[in-house]
Amino acid sequence: MESGFPLLTLTIWLPIIGGVAVLASGDRDHGVSKWTGLTFAVLTFLVSLALWAGFDPTSSDMQFVERTPWIPSFDVYYQVGVDGISMPLIVLTTFVTIFVLVAGWETITYKPSHYMAAFLIMEGLMVGVFSALDAILFYVFWEAMLIPMFIIIGVWGGPNRVYATIKFFLYTFFGSVFMLVALIYMYFQSGSFSILDFHGLELGMTAQTLIFVAFLLAFAVKVPMFPVHTWLPDAHVEAPTGGSVILAAIMLKIGGYGFLRFSLPITPDASASLDWLIIALSLIAVVYIGFVALVQQDMKKLIAYSSIAHMGFVTLGFFILFGILQRSGVSTGAVMGIEGGMVQMISHGFISGALFLCVGVLYDRVHSRQIADYGGVVNTMPWFGAFLVFFAMANAGLPGTSGFVGEFMVILAAFRADFWFAFLAATTLVLAAAFTLWMVKRVVYGEVKSDKVAQLEDLNGREAFNLGALAAAVLLFGLWPAPLVNVMHATVENLVVQVGACKLPAAESGDCVLPRPAPVAALGTP
Amino acid sequence: MPYEAINPMPVLPEIAIMLTACTVLLVDLYLKEKDKGIAHDLALIGLVAAIGLTGLVGGGAQTVAFGGNVVRDPMSDLLKGATLMVAFFGFVYARPWLKDRHLLAGEFYVLGLFAVLGMLVMISAGSFLTLYLGLELLSLCLYALVAFDRDSKAGSEAAMKYFVLGALGSGMLLYGVSMIYGATGSIELAAVARAVAEHGIADKVLVFGIAFLVIGVGFKFGAVPFHMWVPDIYQGAPTPVTLFLGSAPKIAAFALAVRLLVDGMGGLHSDWQGMLVILSVLSMGLGNLLAIAQTNIKRMLAYSTISHVGFIFLGLLAGSAQGYAAAMFYAIVYAVMAAGAFGILTILSREGFDAENLDDLKGLNDRDSWFAAMMAILMFSMAGVPPAAGFMAKLLVLEAVVRVDMVWLAVVAVFFSIIGAFYYLRVVKLIYFDRPDTDAPIVTSNGVRAAMTANGLAVLFLGLFPAALLGLCQASFR
């Protein structure tokens, strides 16, 4: 579907233009730059809502496609489009950015215009990542995104910020450069950089495995998955509140998105033969990291580890499908696993973002993130206490909140593949409840622990707006997840069809684990 | 014997530079100390005129002049234009630095302009003779420029080292040329190429000739293991001279490599490819690893140059038109980035103080956030992070090596670029995350500020819209 008005391009570039405008407005008058920034963020959100309104959920095709030559001699195009997988993530990005800007309103005193600009530029780049259909364009957005985040953590972060931000940058850079080589390799196999052409590409098992590993390096670092997750707690602890929110709410999702957009459809056979690896790493993340989270003393670190555990759920949901396909041959379970992972990503975006905002609220007042420094906060901050308890419950997967929906779907899908997968995955319900609620108990309830806590003031209007809006979103998608699931359903079904078909060239067809597709070209290729 | 009128059209840019250099030399005699700026202005006018003339006489198919000694083709047009522009930036950045140290003399511009002339001659050389002539003109001017601050011991030492090692490199090159002359009977590149195509590698003298040519090219580029001179010279030379010799001559060195290896020895690509693979991998590895250990930023940038040379060789060794175009794109982009990075150092220097150590960049963002942003763009570009031009350059050379089925080499290259990212990030860290040690204001002229802005934004622009420059590069190898 070609669209006349470049709505998608507007969503990508409006915040970037806004960022430049905010930079230009400078720090002479903070009010002007802040309001300019907020205006652009809200406008971008409205544009993305228009995108959502114009999106046809019954189709699995790319929509709002725009295609202009960029580097013609290398077949690189500025090609963007959205489908059911990227649509919700784009709206999540534009939605969360507003709260990030509002959260930094008064607390950022050092060069606030640069702070606002960095987040706006990053917003545009992240939307770009979700909508790029050209591999090089994708890579440019993917890497460019590191620059503002590097600066945000490094400039406005905590005492150990330099170590954390360089670690963050190098980890992600390390992961992604090998992906670049894989993308170039596929260009020579397919003759184009279009991601949709990659989807239809026949690749031998060796090539698939190497490409899968390259993608795994890139996305596993971003998600982050078990052995390469260590940058995340550091980055979260040192980042300013807004940086943590963006990291947890959106950046991690880009890794998950990469699995759906690249790994699964491009290398289905390698994914099928290596799915045990991802499932094992995911379960380690869920169980082991859950225990690690339990012993954290620092609230931000605790939420960071909780993010890793929850993202383990997401990758589990994405890769459980091969087990299901091989066992029963029905695809509904597979679809449910992926959709569950997607819902979990969106919901975790709201919940972890909100939890980091909550920690930010406390940190702004007391300048400590240590759980031991708090206690009895509810006595002085009743509204805040209510919100924190609510988000903690959501984080633990309480039915009625969005946290429950995704986890439930993934566990249900896991049961179809293997009882023990599901059993181990379900321990998260216990563990998440344990580490989140125990933290809440120590921070919110009990006697007023110190003078500092006794002098706390409850939420101001700005903070209440942030937490209130996110709480509404959590509740909305918890009680009524249908709109979210509907948007992605057609796309995910198409994805499962694509992933469920062997892509090895005819010469190697004996090695197919997956059924070979009918001679008709796979869906979704142009 | 029919009389052939010499057609001076292809060499008009060279003539313009030559005339400017002579004019500056003459005018400078009559200039008082306070009017020395006129020499600077004249030099800039000469460069602009040469850029204009390059555009004017450029375009269209190859023209051969002076009995095959001079070749004007799309490649020479683009490389000349790029060289002249980078030299323009170099002169603009140098002026306040020289003025502060009472070194603003006509000689700097005369030597600089003759060096530019040498580069132009190299770029459009059609025979070994012109190639060597241009190379020596360039080298001799650079030796003198490195020692330009005559009171500086480090500068004199660097100049001495540069001279000895440079002479060694030139000697190797000359030795190789003589062998090739012996094997093919010609010093004209076109004739050599024909002879090579005819005889192939059968002639052992030719093999030795190529080996020495590659050594000579390696010396001039500063590729490992012929890199020993680079760090010392970069560190010892006055910053504007480091800027000058670290930027535009890379473009000329690229022309040298293409003229020798591609135009002359193109038929023996499979023989020199292996040598370049070794040079390239060693350069990327050693350059990136040693750069991490540096505290002097000029030295760090010297090692970074070495690693970038490895990347340029990646494109050359691919041996395809795409590969040459990619290497050309890389060389031009690198020259622009290097000019900018050293430009920042000249800006940060002031009377009695040279910004040389990494710590001198501390808190640049607090002192001048615009220059900080430009330097950050340059550093991210050198690290190969999009959307800056350095990423596109790396992408194109990687593409070229993957195209010739050397995926392992691409993997090695990206691996070393991760290591490289660290020390560029450290510079960004100093600029943005640290507080300044000094509150001395940064004083610059509007001209320098404008040049820096143009330089930094050019790097960003080439990263966002590489198609135009890439198209020109590709047209050079069709």
Descriptive overview:
The complex is a heterodimer of chains A (526) and B (478). With 526 residues, chain A is mainly α. Chain A has helices spanning 7-25, 30-54, 86-103, 112-131, 135-144, 146-156, 161-190, 195-199, 205-222, 231-238, 241-266, 268-294, 299-319, 321-327, 332-366, 377-380, 382-395, 402-417, 419-444, 451-454, 461-479, 482-499; strands spanning 63-71, 76-82. Chain A is globular, with a radius of gyration of 22 Å. Chain B contains 20 helices and two strands. In chain B, α5 packs antiparallel against α6. Chain B starts with 11 loop residues before the first helix and ends with a helix.
Secondary-structure topology with pairs:
The complex is a heterodimer of chains A (526) and B (478).
Chain A: H1 7-25, H2 30-54, E1 63-71, E2 76-82, H3 86-103, H4 112-131, H5 135-144, H6 146-156, H7 161-190, H8 195-199, H9 205-222, H10 231-238, H11 241-266, H12 268-294, H13 299-319, H14 321-327, H15 332-366, H16 377-380, H17 382-395, H18 402-417, H19 419-444, H20 451-454, H21 461-479, H22 482-499
Helix pairs in contact in A: 1-2, 1-4, 2-3, 2-4, 3-4, 3-11, 3-15, 4-5, 4-6, 4-11, 5-7, 6-7, 7-9, 7-10, 9-11, 9-12, 10-11, 10-13, 11-13, 11-15, 12-13, 12-19, 13-15, 13-18, 13-19, 14-15, 14-18, 15-17, 15-18, 15-21, 15-22, 17-19, 17-21, 18-19, 18-21
Chain B: H1 12-29, H2 37-57, E1 63-65, E2 70-72, H3 74-100, H4 106-123, H5 128-146, H6 153-184, H7 189-199, H8 204-221, H9 229-236, H10 239-246, H11 248-264, H12 269-292, H13 297-318, H14 321-348, H15 364-367, H16 369-383, H17 389-403, H18 407-433, H19 446-464, H20 467-475
Antiparallel strand pairs in B: 1-2
